[in-house]
């Protein structure tokens, strides 16, 4: 009985070692004028994206949020340098936020979101998109951030899984 358990465990270990998981890194960037509360929205969106990719078997990692602006987002080489090790893909997301003072409270206007998938080995953009958050149905901005993360994940996974 003990031999069969050891054989099963060893077989499972060998099988797992032979499986090669794909890796995806996330880099979330926003404009320098973004209100402090915008980090919450970026984190919600990034978490939804992270969860979707992880659930599909990808090894996922991320970086701290950057306020490098759109020029930084356009520089794929700079984004690649953030990651300490080689990945299969990088998802770069640029959010443009604006503050709005309403009744003495600061609110966030989420103007636009651009995203792209960079193939790390070829250093090329293989897929990209733009989302205008105010055009989405969700009225609650947190739910909207989660929906956007899910939408990006679905698009990215469709593209990346067809390349495997």
Explain what the structure shows.
Helices cover 43% and strands 30% of the residues. With 164 residues, the chain is an alpha/beta fold. The protein has one domain: Rossmann fold, CATH 3.40.50. A five-stranded mixed β-sheet has the order 2-1-3-4-5, with helices on both faces. A hairpin with a 4-residue loop joins strand 4 and strand 5. Helix 2 packs parallel to helix 5. It starts with a helix and ends with a helix.
How do the helices and strands line up, and which of them pair or pack?
Elements: H1 2-18, E1 23-30, H2 38-55, E2 59-62, H3 69-74, H4 76-82, E3 89-102, E4 105-119, E5 124-131, H5 141-163
Parallel strand pairs: 1-2, 1-3
Antiparallel strand pairs: 3-4, 4-5
Helix pairs in contact: 2-5
The quaternary structure here is: single chain
- The first-level CATH class is given as Alpha Beta
Which geometry do the CA atoms define?
Answer: globular
Q: Which stretches are low in confidence, meaning pLDDT under 50 for 5 or more residues running? A: 13-18
Question: DSSP helix count?
Answer: 5
With strands numbered from the N-terminus, the spatial order across the biggest sheet is 2-1-3-4-5
What is the CATH architecture term? Answer: 3-Layer(aba) Sandwich
Instruction: Quickly count the domains.
Output: 1
> Which percent range describes the beta-strand content?
25-35%
Note the run of SSEs as H and E.
Answer: HEHEHHEEEH
Structural class: alpha/beta
